[in-house]
Here is the input.
Amino acid sequence: MRTIIFSIIILLRSNFTQARHDQFYFSHHQHHHPHYYQTNEPNDLSLWISEQQVKMFSGYSMRIYAIDNGRVNPLLRDPAFDTLMPIIPPEIMSMNFTWTAGKRKYRYHFDHMMSLDEKVLLAPVISIRPKGRIPPEPKQFSVMLPCSNLTSGIAKFTLGLQITRAKGKFLPGTPLRFTLRKECNLNRGGPDPECDKKCLNGGSCTKNKICKCAEGYIGQNCEQALCFPQCMNGGNCSAPAICSCPKGYQGRYCEGG
Here is the structure.
């Protein structure tokens, strides 16, 4: 698993400007400082793989940028992007991202989310509205990658993202449309295939025909994402630890008006 994330780190960071590179350092004294640090928070549009996601794979908490202070990483526009990136393994059911518009105003539109082989992988699903305004403060969202549970294999999927400035002009380097690969394994371990189909979000059926849910999900059929503390002010737990807030509220748990 660490090989996967280190490959991503090398590929993405190899395209950063030297200025951004100089803002990071890694402490060799991991016992005391097991993090990459950023000297300044982004003041323009930035999109990165969350620290929690990277730490889950590699043991290190750090950011991997796709858009860095208004600059799109050139790797994302490489026609061979999918062959450069490692295949997303079966145990990874979603990718978590964080973004912020900083001091400027941007709007987004996920205009394309498609699986190229729905016998293996269903179309990706995002945990936020498909279009809207990028928040001024850092906020997390997820891209969920649901396997069909019909057959094993490796399927390609494509994501399309438009980002525009206040006057409708596209951010340089966008729209983005790139392809990745996801591996799915058909779970044949359950005693009842029909029961397995009822267990959602990566859950599996036990010998007692009870759904055993993947981390972050609860419910009889693993249909409900878990947020703790609970989402406030009418917010909806749209993915594990991710609250979708109603209009007029913001914050990790919709706690702020």
